[in-house]
Write a structure and sequence with these properties.
Strands 2, 3, 5, 6, 7, 8, 9, 10 and 11 form a nine-stranded antiparallel beta sheet that branches. The chain has a two-stranded antiparallel ribbon with strand order 1-4. The chain has one domain (about 5-140): Beta Barrel (Lipocalin), CATH 2.40.128.110. It is built from one helix and eleven strands. It is mainly β.
Length: about 140
């Protein structure tokens, strides 16, 4: 079963140190999940998945990302959702970087069972979920 969706409410901040090391957080309102199916979205907000009532924020945290090969950042990324936390393996691509800001893109496969998201009628749902994050950080 493949379902595509996005989150409507996302905020974040980041910083670049003098040596080029990058740190930041992306905060996602878990109740803003949107798959264009109201019944499915309600179920995704439930305790079977994101548990939005008790865990209103999904957080992607990066600390100590270092530049690699001019177009990538590498380092530890942590995903927190539904009261659980897990390190995520990914490479962050630098899509564009100007004096005004930077756009980053990362793809990751996440084992949703590590977040106790195990609901799967008739085993139709794979334990792995794919996520693509594109984030634009602007200088302020």
């Amino acid at each position: 079963m493949t379902v595509h969706g996005h989150f409507d409410t996302i905020t974040g901040d980041g910083k670049v140190d003098g040596d080029g090391t990058v740190s930041g957080d992306i905060r996602i309102a878990s109740d803003s999940v949107n798959t264009k199916n109201k019944q499915r979205d309600k179920h995704l907000r439930s305790d079977d998945f994101f548990g939005a009532a008790g865990h209103p924020t999904i957080t992607i945290s990066a600390s100590g990302l270092t530049p690699f090969d001019g177009t990538e950042l590498r380092g530890p990324i942590t995903l927190s959702a539904a009261g659980y936390q897990q390190a995520v393996a990914t490479v962050v691509q630098v899509v564009s970087a100007t004096a005004a800001g930077v756009t980053l893109r990362a793809e990751a496969t996440v084992d949703r069972t590590a977040f106790d998201m195990t609901w799967s009628p008739l085993n139709m749902t794979r334990p792995e979920a794919s996520a693509i994050v594109t984030a634009r950080f602007v200088r302020n």
